Amino acid sequence: MSAGRILVVDDDAAIRTVVREALRREGHVVETAASLADLGRVIGPFRPDVVITDVVLPDGDGLDFVPELTRRHPGLPVIVLSARNTLATAVRATERGAFDYLPKPFDLDELGRAVTSALAGRAAPEEAAGSEPQELPLIGRSPAMQAVYRTIARVVATDLTVLILGESGTGKELVARAIHDLGPRLARPFVAVNMAAIPRDLIESELFGHERGAFTGAGMRSAGRFEQAHGGTLFLDEIGDMPVDAQTRLLRVLQEGEFTTVGGARPIRADVRVIAATNKDIERQVEEGRFREDLFYRLNVVPIRLPALRERGADIGELARHFLDRAAADGLPRKRLDEAAVARLARHGWPGNVRELENLMRRLAVLIREEVIGAAAIEAQLGPQAAEPGLAPRGDASGLAQAVEQHLVAYFASFGRDLPPDGLYDRLLAEIEAPLLRLSLAAARGNQIRAARLLGMNRNTLRKKLADRAIDPSAARRGGA
Ligand SMILES: Nc1ncnc2c1ncn2[C@@H]1O[C@H](COP(=O)(O)OP(=O)(O)OP(=O)(O)O)[C@@H](O)[C@H]1O
């Protein structure tokens, strides 16, 4: 490994010392600076090969200084360290032309590797002139997510094909959108297609469009998703569900950069950035011959593996609070979580990942009457009975019936050999009716006509029931149920 001259800029003396000693042990010559002014004084005489700088410095922003630094010292690689571990910082670092970005706390080995590749003169990431990126909806600062942010930051300015892998609900579509929104195609369309949701025999016409009369039922010419996404990004979700003949056609389009519509002859140029995603084990599908190996390699140019929520427990509190804020912004009652509640959330397995957490937070926002949600409320939702995997899959009312049945079993069991008090039927319906009305109203944002339709009852019946149960319908709109 080649040794170099490294200038470390950080206002924290402890960090300067740790980094200096670690790099000296690897044979580098190290100088340090505590501020931008210091950096300006030292850099001339020291002539570093690499600068490592913190972002927040007493006299300015180290990241904002990177373009100036590289203007004065062309080709000088700058490695940025930052404690603000958001996607926006990673992207800003790339945009300012930083050679690499390491979130704090960093690993000294990782820093050593970054210095080695900076010295080896590996091409720095492309510089993208651009405006300040907006803070993105990707929440979480765990190491696993930081690795994701760094990859996103590297690919936004390019047209490289990205393959996003991860369990259902881990945020694959959100990542695809972030890549689109941060890149030069922002002003052009982002078109998402879910391969699992299209009937097999319609996939090709859905993707590439068809000419008038191309097949039975093809009345008029129709533009496909590739055409709709022209100049923008095409997000192919659940790519593992694509039938093999459509895979062949997709591969050809990716290789040739043009396609023909079903029934058409004239090739159409495809100026589309493709991002694909799957929650399947696609490498296994390749091994089993269910997914074309050549297409896999063509899509897998830059893989992004999204961690399951259980692998990033450190993010759960921030995510949960974010979803409660969002629920409040949508007009649901504003709620907070206490620390014990967050600890209880962190112990859950989250088979449905971030989506499951988001749904739980929305549910709690309406179900819990107190302003602060405690561990007991979480336990009631995630407890041994509720946490049965697959108990209530999304939108499956039979799952709901099972959950209710389990509660009833527990209710009867709680009386031992005795029977519950008489009049159970009416009491039970009365118990269920109030939360059902409140939740439906909240889901319909306080719109009684919509809530009545959701419930499948007449609006006057709903109004009467609300009055009987003393439920204030405007509370769902105000968010103060
Ligand atoms: N890091 C994150 N920060 C904030 N919200 C997130 C994050 N990840 C996921 N979400 C939210 O979780 C939900 C599920 O995310 P998304 O639809 O992107 O998942 P997915 O992996 O594409 O799921 P599927 O495989 O089922 O299509 C969305 O509402 C999304 O906004």
Describe the secondary-structure layout.
Layout: E1 5-9, H1 13-25, E2 29-33, H2 36-46, E3 50-54, E4 56-57, E5 60-61, H3 66-72, E6 78-82, H4 87-95, E7 100-103, H5 108-119, H6 143-155, E8 162-165, H7 172-182, E9 190-194, H8 203-208, E10 209-210, E11 222-223, H9 225-228, E12 233-237, H10 244-256, E13 258-259, E14 268-269, E15 273-278, H11 282-287, H12 293-299, E16 302-305, H13 316-329, E17 336-337, H14 339-346, H15 353-367, E18 372-373, H16 375-382, H17 397-413, H18 424-443, H19 448-455, H20 459-468, H21 473-478
Parallel strand pairs: 1-2, 1-3, 3-6, 6-7, 8-15, 8-16, 9-12, 12-15, 17-18
Antiparallel strand pairs: 4-5, 10-11, 13-14
Helix pairs in contact: 4-6, 13-15, 14-16, 18-19, 19-20
The structure holds adenosine-5'-triphosphate (ATP).
Modified residues (4-aspartylphosphate): 54
Organism: Sphingomonas morindae
Protein name: DNA-binding transcriptional regulator NtrC
Total of DSSP H or I helical runs spanning 4+ residues: 21
Ranges with pLDDT <50 over ≥5 residues?
Answer: 122-135, 385-393
- Largest pleated sheet: 5 strands, parallel
Ligands bound here? adenosine-5'-triphosphate
The CATH architecture of the largest domain can be given as: 3-Layer(aba) Sandwich
Organism: Sphingomonas morindae
Modified residues (4-aspartylphosphate): 54
Domain Response regulatory: 5-119
InterPro entries: AAA+_ATPase (IPR003593), AAA_lid_NorR (IPR058031), CheY-like_superfamily (IPR011006), Homeodomain-like_sf (IPR009057), HTH_Fis (IPR002197), P-loop_NTPase (IPR027417), Sig_transdc_resp-reg_receiver (IPR001789), Sigma_54_int (IPR002078)
